């Protein structure tokens, strides 16, 4: 189905039920733009998944008290260092331990699931935590090919037919399949009077263009696709059509960021996440290594080049340096909102990094 398909467009726009006030961030205190968090429930060396999830819960409570706007978790599979395999389950838990923080998926990989199942999961989340839930959708598998086959066993739909899957999902969310549709009599239960805002996530031009044509908010993965950020946002804005959800574009970018007492300490901490990414790219994912393991790793020249390139896109340093770097990135990209992620070893170091960033950035 082409992205111009009017039925898909009408469905994804959602009849105005997404409440634009919940999509647009509200700047707090002296912050130049809303600041949010993407968390992967990072499992580091020496920690259990249970300890990682407890740390994520503590981080969500801390983020709420610090003035962060959203707290998203992402779907990943087959990665020992990531415990957020099922966003809906984790979001239900986080919602029970917070009061005002917006919670969402950054994202759910829609081709891995039946659209009805996602409509039910997020309808339930909206019923549990009304007005606080975002449904961010991606089309990548979030894992390796073998795990994809296991995940999608029994799903006969074409995973590349993302616009049609999105259309079906939003019809389920809104309960407005047209007469004569095979699913016209089906209802996604529970279904609240309102539904979570739908976001499209991406690291290339496909989702940018689709989000623009459908008038949906767009989140771009700058933290692992920095070279494509500006072209993708330009494409999103140039193709944007006003909708019942938004009358103008709203773009968020994910940013790797690490703050510490000094630039050297921030880089030392960031090395653990960089080595974890190197291992993932080599097809050998594992627990997030300690800074000591990252410092003593025998890097080849190619590996050292990869780390330098990766860390070059992480905003790291003292709190003031990180705040200045985030603001420079916001101005360069024109992003309406920044979503920082600190993929580093050690729960205390991670929480402290977010606290230092919040204070330096001016969250209230």
Structural commentary:
With 364 residues, the chain is an alpha/beta fold. The chain has a single domain (28-361), classed as TIM Barrel (Alpha-Beta Barrel), CATH 3.20.20.30. It has 14 helices and 9 strands. An 8-stranded parallel β-barrel has the order 1-2-3-4-5-6-7-9, surrounded by 8 helices. Helix 1 packs across helix 7 (162-174), helix 3 packs parallel to helix 14 and helix 5 (115-128) packs across helix 7 (162-174). Mean pLDDT is 90; it is low at 1-11 and 15-20.
Radius of gyration, in Å, reads: 20 Å
**Total beta strand runs:** 9
Helix content: 40-55%
Mean pLDDT: 90
CATH architecture: Alpha-Beta Barrel
The order of strands across the largest sheet is 1-2-3-4-5-6-7-9
Oligomeric state of the chains present here: single chain
| Distinct helical segment count | 14
CATH superfamily: Luciferase-like domain
InterPro entries: Bact_Lucif_Oxidored, CmoO-like, Luciferase-like_dom, Luciferase-like_sf
Pfam families: Bac_luciferase
Family: To bacterial alkanal monooxygenase alpha and beta chains.
Protein name: LLM class flavin-dependent oxidoreductase
């Amino acid at each position: 189905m082409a992205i111009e398909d009017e039925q898909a467009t009408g469905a994804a726009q959602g009849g105005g039920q997404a409440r634009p006030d919940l999509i647009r961030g509200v700047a707090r205190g002296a912050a130049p733009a809303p600041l949010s968090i993407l968390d992967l429930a990072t499992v580091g060396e020496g920690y259990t998944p249970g300890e990682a999830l407890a740390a994520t819960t503590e981080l969500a409570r801390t983020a709420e008290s610090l003035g962060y706007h959203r707290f998203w978790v992402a779907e990943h599979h087959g990665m020992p260092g990531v415990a957020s395999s099922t966003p809906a389950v984790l979001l239900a838990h986080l919602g029970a331990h917070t009061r005002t923080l917006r919670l969402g998926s950054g994202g759910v990989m829609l081709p891995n699931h039946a659209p009805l199942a996602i409509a039910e999961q997020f309808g339930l989340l909206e019923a549990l935590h009304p007005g606080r839930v975002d449904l961010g959708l991606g089309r990548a598998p979030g894992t390796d090919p073998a795990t994809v086959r296991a995940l999608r066993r029994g799903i006969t739909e074409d995973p590349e037919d993302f616009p049609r899957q999105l259309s079906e999902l939003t019809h389920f969310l809104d309960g407005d399949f047209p007469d004569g549709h095979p699913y016209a009599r089906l209802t996604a239960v529970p279904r609240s009077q309102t539904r979570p805002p739908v976001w499209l996530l991406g690291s290339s031009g496909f989702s940018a263009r689709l989000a623009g044509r459908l008038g949906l908010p767009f989140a771009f993965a700058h933290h692992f696709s920095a070279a494509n950020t500006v072209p993708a946002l330009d494409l999103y804005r140039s193709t944007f059509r006003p909708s019942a959800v938004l009358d103008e574009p709203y773009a968020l970018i994910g940013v790797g960021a690490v703050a510490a007492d000094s630039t050297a300490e921030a880089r030392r901490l960031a090395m653990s996440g960089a080595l974890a990414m190197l291992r993932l790219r080599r097809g050998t994912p594992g627990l997030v290594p300690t800074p000591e393991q990252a410092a003593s790793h025998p890097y080849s020249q190619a590996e050292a080049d990869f780390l330098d390139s990766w860390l070059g896109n992480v905003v790291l340093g003292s709190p003031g340096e990180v705040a200045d770097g985030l603001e420079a990135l916001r101005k360069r990209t024109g992003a309406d909102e920044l979503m920082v992620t600190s993929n580093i070893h050690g729960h205390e170091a991670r929480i402290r990094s977010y606290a230092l960033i919040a204070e330096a950035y001016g969250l209230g």
